[in-house]
Structure formats: C-alpha cells, structure tokens
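Page 42, continued from yesterday. The earlier attempt failed because a stray header line got pasted into the input along with the sequence. Redoing it now with the clean sequence only.
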Amino acid sequence: MQKISRLAALLVAGAIITAPALAADKAKAFATVNGQPIPQSVFDAFVAEQKAQGAPDSPELQKAVKEELIRREVLAQEAKKKGLDKKAEVQGQVELAKQAVLIRAYLSEQVRAHPISEAQLKTEYEAIKANFGNTEYKARHVLVDKEDDAKAIIAKLEKGEKFSELAKQSKDPGSKDKGGELGWSAPNAYVKPFAEALTKLKKGEYTKAPVKSDFGYHVIQLDDSRPLTPPTYEQLKPQLQQRAGNQQVEALVNELRSKAKVN
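This time it went through. Structure tokens are written below.
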C-alpha cells in the first residue's frame, strides 16, 4: 500500500473518531462499516494527501485508501466499545489532531491569498549574493577553550611546528582529525570574529593572536583563496521561496498572537 503520512493519519483519525457528528447524511458516505458510515470527505482528504506527496491517482491508490480507512474504522469502533473515546487523554489527542488540520488549512489559505512575488524573491537573492562576497577561502583552525592555550599554539607555530599536528589539540571534532581543515567557504559561513580575521590573512599566514568567538579561541591559517561564483537565482529559488513562506507564516502568527486576549 502507498505510504500514509503522519499528518494524513492525524486527519483521518480525527475524522473517524468524530464520525457520529458526520454520520447523519449517509448519501455522502463512501463506505459503511457495521452500520457506521465513513464520510466521503474523509476518503477525498486522504487521497488528496497521498497525491500531494507524489502518489499517482490510480485505482490501486483508491483501493488501498478505502481498505485503510475501513481497517481504521474497525479499530476505532473497537476502541469506542471499550470506552477509550471517553478518556480525557484520548479526547485531548483528538482535539490536537483536529486543531493541526485546521491550522494547516488556514495557513495554506493565507499563503494562497498572499503569494510571494518574484520581485520579493529576487530582492532577497541580491541581498544574499552581496553577503557572499567575491572571494572564498580555504582555511584551517585550532579551537581551544583558553586564550593561553591558543597563545601556546601560536608560539609553537613560530618555532616551525606543523599546523596539522597542532590541530589535534582542537576541540572541533569536525576538523581536528583533518589537520584543522575547514574546506572552501565564503566568509559569511563563519562567525563574525573568525571571518574578519580570516579575510585579513594572506596565503600561508596564520593569526598572530588568538581570535575569540562564542566557541572559544581560534588559531586560524589561510591555505588559499579564489574568486567566488555565487549560486544562481534559479538554484536558490526553492530555498528562497521556503524561507519567504516561513517568514510570512511567522509574521502572521506573531500578529495574531499579539492581538489575542489571554487570561
């Protein structure tokens, strides 16, 4: 059977458990189980959810969804016979499931009513592209907790010890076993103090004083630099759309929350 999403499961669970309220109009039922009709709207919602996830609409999908909903109805009826639908914790879960579906429907409606414009996306892209800069750097570092430890590493570098060996002291698990190498990155990939120190170095140089950040104290070496070609607008467009959509939803939620009267 096609994979059933968690959200679809919540939707269906809420619909089935509250089925008595919907059962009056049997003409709209797509199936009846032990005399209990399952609304056509539940079937349609389940199919739509599967299609949205990429499942092709086919007789096989229709059959699989029908069988799944019948199985769920059978189980729900048994749960009701045992009075589980009367338990406070179960009723709370049902309300949360119904609430989740309503929230998704509302937010989807708001996004459709206020689509993100191409101009907005391109403005965001230009801001991101400017933040990339024109150069990317191949760097390595040693990260330690104490400033004196960083100074001691610098002193050893001055005496000719290899950076790759000293990097074994680093507390950065992602680079310590690679000689401190961080690979190629634009300055905006790093925290501000690190980026500022890195961009002042020439090829082969290392920082003569420890660089403090929220992570500790860094000793940084610049291995190389090269011109940076930022991603194209089309490459970043999906992420830009998602980011803009998230910001739109967050702004809406914050606005509604600020107006809500909470006692």
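Notes: Residues 192 and 213 are 8 Å apart (CA to CA).
Reminder to self: strip header lines before submitting.
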